[in-house]
Amino acid sequence: LEKARKTIDTNLRRVAKKKHAEDKTAQEALVAGALSRLHTTTSLEKAVKDADLVIEAIVENIDVKRKLFSEIEKLAKPSAILTTNTSSFRLADIAVNLKSKSQFGGLHFFNPVPVMKLLEIVRHDETSKETFETLMEYGKDIGKKTVACKDTPGFIVNRLLVPYMFEALRLVERGDASMEDVDVAMKLGAGYPMGPFELCDYVG
Fold first, then answer.
1. N or C: which end of the chain has fewer CB within 10 A?
2. How many C-alpha atoms does 103 have within 13 Å on its Cβ side?
3. Which conformational region is residue 167 in: left (phi greater than 0), alpha (psi within -120 to 50 degrees), or beta?
4. Does domain 156-203 have CATH number 1.10.1040.10?
């Protein structure tokens, strides 16, 4: 937990420096204020028992996610909204064991979260209108640009991004172009901030 807090502290300071470049007092106030609202624990019960909104962001393993949500639902308030940050799985497949599927939705953030403005709000067939609207409002409250999407694999961004990255790999495999030239071409020709191979290296 201490290592995680140090990482968060480092990331917050980076954001604070960008936001208040010439004002160190404002930088420190931003970091201190954010950290004062952060509470860490290894206890799932303590983490969710009083939460109005739970955001899951664990490994992309659907069985592990299903098991975790089954445990969370038992420990959280009946009124709590449960969400997943999955980037690929369908929400309906994750929620199979949930009793209150109407209070389940998707909040797909993009890395690095403090920098990337986009937040995909995903609803499955059983997500209630109230839950969906609450998630949209939450996204706006934290300063994100929200886009709505139905429960389709990859949602919007990854549904379009993954085929693009695979095609870049095929170009290089066929010997049509080098990785470096593909990256340069997409940055200068299409205006992308990163080429597909730079992006692969970044996201892992």
1. C
2. 17
3. alpha
4. yes
Between the CA of residue 62 and those of 15, 85, 90, 112, what are the distances in Å? 32, 12, 10, 23
Q: What is the C-alpha to C-alpha distance for residues 69 and 44, in angstroms, rounded to an integer?
A: 11
6-27 exposure pattern, b = at least 16 Cβ within 10 A, e = fewer:
eebeebbeebbeeeeeeeeeeb
> What's this model's pTM, rounded to 2 decimal places?
0.88
CA angle 88, 113, 2 (to 5 degrees): 105
* Residue found by looking up tokens 């659907």 in the block: 62
Query: What does pLDDT average to over the chain?
Result: 95
- Please indicate whether residue 39 is annotated as part of the active site: no
Catalytic-role residue among 20, 39, 108, 124? 108
Per-domain residue ranges of the chain: 1-40, 47-150, 156-203
Tens-digit pLDDT profile for residues 24-61? 999 999 999 999 999 999 999 999 999 999 999 999 99
120-133 in b/e form (b: 16+ CB < 10 A) is bbbbbebbbeebbe
- Please identify which residue in the block is written with the tokens 């470096």: 180
CATH class of 47-150: alpha beta
CA distance 93 to 64: 12
